[in-house]
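Consider the following assembly input.
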Amino acid sequence: MIGAVTENQDKVVRRRGPRKDAADNRDRVLAAAAVAVRRDGTAVPMATIAADAGVGVGTVYRHYPSRDALLGALTHRSFQLVLETARRAAALDGPPLEGIRFFLERTIEHGSDLVLPMHGGPAPSDQATVALRDEAHRTLGSILERGQDDGTIRDDVTRADIVSFGALLAQGLPHAPDWTATARRQADIYLDGLHPARRGKPTGGRSR
Amino acid sequence: MIGAVTENQDKVVRRRGPRKDAADNRDRVLAAAAVAVRRDGTAVPMATIAADAGVGVGTVYRHYPSRDALLGALTHRSFQLVLETARRAAALDGPPLEGIRFFLERTIEHGSDLVLPMHGGPAPSDQATVALRDEAHRTLGSILERGQDDGTIRDDVTRADIVSFGALLAQGLPHAPDWTATARRQADIYLDGLHPARRGKPTGGRSR
DNA sequence: CCTTAAACGGACGATATCGTCCGACTAAGA
DNA sequence: TCTTAGTCGGACGATATCGTCCGTTTAAGG
C-alpha cells in the first residue's frame, strides 16, 4: 500500500462521454425547467424543477451550478430552436412572405419549448448565445430583404420587427385560454399587414 | 363629571373621508407597486414596494392586506384605464379603424401604468374588475362591428383579437431597448392587416 | 464479477421574505 | 390649543428557499 501508487497512473479508466444516466438527467432537468419557468416564472423554486424532473436538488445544481446558469441554458436552447426554424424558413422556395409565415407558425407551435429571455429572464450574456441570436436575426433579415427587393413586403419593416413579433407570440398571454389559436389569428392579420401599403383604398384617412 | 357620560354619545367625531396622508400613501403604494411589478415581476418583495413608495411595510399591508389584494387593485386600476381609453376611442367620429388605432396607441402610451393580469398575475377574480373588463370588451366590440358592417375591417377578426393584441403591446418585451417605438410600428403593421383581405394580389398562395 | 470514478439525492445551516403587532406620531374637528 | 381616532413604520418570530456537502448508489470498462 506504500510504494505501488504511482506505477498504474496510466491504467486509469478513461471515460469517453458523460454517463448515460447523467446525460438523461441533464435533459430532463432542462425540459422540466422550461415548463416550470413558463408556468411559474423565473423565480420558480429549484426544488420544484427538481421534483418535476424526478431528481434531487443536488442533481440540478451539479448540472447547472446556479439559477442563472440554468436560465442561460434555457435561453441558449431557445435560440437554437429559433435559428433552426429561421434557416428552414429561409430555405423555402415560395414568396418571402410565406417564409415569414412559416417562421411565425413554427414559433407558435414550439410554444413552451421557447423560453426566451422574456419572462423577466436576463438577456443572453454568453457569447455563444449571442452568436446564435445574431445569426437568427441575419437569416430572418435575408428573407425580409428578398421580399422588400421584389416589392412584396413593405419597406419600413425591419428584421427587428419580425423578431419582436415572433417573441411576442412565443411569450403569449399567460392566462389566455387557447393561446395557440389566438396567436395564429394574430399572425395572419400581421402577415396581411406586411404587404406594401395600398394606395387609394376606400378605407379612409390614414394620413401619417 | 358623573352622570354626564351618556348624553354626548352622538357628539362622537364623524370623519367624512380618509385622512389626507392615508389617501396619499395609498396612491403612492399603488403607483410604486405598478412600477415594481413591471420591473421585477409579481413576486417582487413587499419590502421593495414599500421602500420605493417611501413608506414602511406596515403601511402597505394596512392598505392592501395581502399580496393578492395589492395585485388585484393593480388589475382593477389597469382595467379602469383600458375602459376609459376604449370609451374615448368609441366616441371618435372617424373611420372605425382609426378608433382602434387610437385605442392601441393610447395603450402603448399608458405603458407602465398598465399592469394587466399578464405578468403571471391572476386573472381578475372580483366582480367589479370583471365588470370593467367585460364593458371594455363590449365597447371595443362595438367599434369593431361598425368597421365590419361598413366593410372597412376584415370579418374574421373578433373583439378578443383586438384585446389580445392590445394586451401584448401593453405587456411588451421586458428587455427591449425602446419598446414604445417598436410597439408603435407593430401596431401600424397590424392595423394594415385589419383591412379586408385583398383578392388577386400577386403575393402568392395564401391557400388556407 | 469487480473496481472505481462519477453521479445521485436529500439533509442541513444560512439567508430572504412574509405578514403581524404595537408604541410613536399626526391630521383634523372641537 | 387640545383631544383622539386613525395612521405610520419597523422590529420580530415564522416560514420558505437557497446552494452546499457528503454518504450511498450506479454505470461501465476490465
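Residues 82 and 90 of chain A are 12 Å apart (CA to CA). Ask yourself how this observation constrains the way the partners meet.
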